[in-house]
């Protein structure tokens, strides 16, 4: 019986030929890649190679990855996601699915509003899940985007394994220009590692099953260190002049007393010592300083940008009905 990958070939053949302006594929590299993927994941190398030979280079994917929204300053990035419509829609979505979301929250400790905020930022609550063929996206970036080709080749290999495991039709998978899929925009490796069966039907379906989507997003945060009941971020009050301080990453490795010695203190009392770090964003009126904690770091594991993590956090606060002004820039 032919594998599921092979059964996708008729649809792939209808997808159209490679654009005339596309760079020629490196057939030796593709063949070696197919052999490696087959050996790693227990697939048939000939089938992998045949499917891969039908992947299409798309210049629009290269164009998109070179101008990400995260390149914007915070004062321009924040208004993209903290809109009245997105907050209103998020509250309606939370109300509609409250029972399922609160069951996930009770099990994992991940707030329902955070799961909803992720879906709001990633796909506008499932309305915009991506129009790029995932196979084309990962092929284009894995073989024609040298700055990150190793990462995207690994994800391409994971995609072949995922298609077999979850009985997915490769030719029909659509997602972002980077190959992220479903309501929560999981990359193939994240899908395989963190997706869970939330509705008990024996499958992990991040395209159609909201119980699976909710449980999987929450599980991703748990796996990356989410701490129930702990804060995400608080505005910082800085001394004048405070010592310029830019940590190398978003790992909360500093004591609050150490940050205070550098001139940065929480604007509101926390009541307990927590490991923290400092994040400075480019606000409309100058630098915004934030003291961030383990849960902020967990959000950056979903997307490495501090702009993304702060937007998700503030959208979650707004969806939950935070007091007026709670999401305003300090």
Describe this structure in words.
The chain is of the alpha+beta class. It folds into 2 domains: about 5-65 and about 130-210, Bacterial muramidase (Helicase, Ruva Protein, domain 3, Orthogonal Bundle), CATH 1.10.8; about 75-130 and about 215-330, Lysozyme (Orthogonal Bundle), CATH 1.10.530.10. About 50% of the residues lie in helices and about 10% in strands. The protein is built from 16 helices and 6 strands. A 4-stranded antiparallel β-sheet has the order 4-3-6-5. A two-stranded antiparallel sheet has the order 1-2. A hairpin with a 2-residue loop joins strand 5 and strand 6 (about 285-290). The chain is globular. The termini are far apart. The model is unreliable at about 5-20 and about 325-330 (pLDDT under 50).
Q: What is the CA-CA span between the terminal residues?
A: 62 Å
Structural class: alpha+beta
Strand segment count: 6
Radius of gyration: 22 Å
Please name the CATH architecture of the largest domain: Orthogonal Bundle
Topology order in helix (H) and strand (E) letters:
HHHHHHHHHEHHEHHEHEEEHH
Question: How much helical structure, as a percent, in the residues?
Answer: 40-55%
Strand content of the residues, in percent? 5-15%
Shape: globular
And the CATH topology of the largest domain? Lysozyme
- Average pLDDT works out at 90
Going across the biggest sheet, name each strand in turn: 4-3-6-5
User: Can you tell me the CATH class of the largest domain?
Assistant: Mainly Alpha
Number of domains: 2
Q: Main sheet?
A: 4 strands, antiparallel
Described by its quaternary structure, the protein is single chain
* Number of continuous helical runs: 16
Low-confidence stretches: 6-20, 323-330
């Amino acid at each position: 019986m032919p594998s599921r990958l092979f059964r996708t070939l008729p649809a792939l053949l209808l997808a159209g030929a490679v654009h005339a302006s596309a760079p020629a594929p490196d057939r030796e590299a593709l063949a070696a890649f197919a052999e490696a993927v087959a050996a790693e994941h227990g697939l048939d190398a000939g089938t992998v190679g045949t499917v891969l030979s039908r992947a299409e280079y798309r210049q629009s994917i290269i164009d998109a990855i070179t101008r990400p929204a995260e390149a914007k300053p915070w004062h321009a990035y924040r208004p993209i996601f903290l809109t009245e419509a997105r907050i209103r829609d998020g509250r309606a979505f939370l109300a509609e699915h409250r029972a399922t979301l609160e069951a996930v929250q009770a099990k994992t400790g991940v707030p329902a509003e955070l799961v909803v905020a992720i879906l709001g930022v990633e796909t506008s609550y499932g309305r915009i899940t991506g129009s790029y063929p995932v196979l084309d996206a990962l092929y284009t970036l894995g073989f024609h985007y040298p700055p990150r080709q190793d990462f995207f080749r690994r994800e391409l290999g994971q995609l072949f394994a995922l298609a077999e495991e979850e009985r997915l039709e490769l030719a029909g998978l659509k997602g972002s220009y980077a190959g992220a899929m479903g309501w929560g925009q999981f990359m193939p490796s994240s899908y395989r590692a963190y997706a869970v069966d939330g509705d008990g039907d024996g499958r992990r379906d991040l395209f159609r099953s909201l119980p699976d989507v909710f449980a999987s997003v929450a599980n991703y945060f748990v796996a990356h260190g989410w701490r129930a009941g702990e804060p995400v971020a608080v505005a910082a009050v800085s001394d004048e002049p405070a010592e310029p301080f830019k940590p190398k990453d978003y790992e909360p490795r500093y004591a609050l007393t150490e940050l205070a010695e550098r001139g940065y203190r929480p604007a509101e009392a926390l009541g307990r010592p927590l490991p923290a770090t400092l994040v400075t964003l480019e606000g409309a009126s100058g630098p915004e300083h934030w003291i961030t904690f383990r849960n902020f770091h967990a959000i950056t594991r979903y997307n490495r940008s501090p702009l993304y993590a702060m937007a998700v956090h503030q959208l979650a606060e707004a969806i939950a009905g935070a007091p007026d002004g709670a999401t305003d820039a300090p």
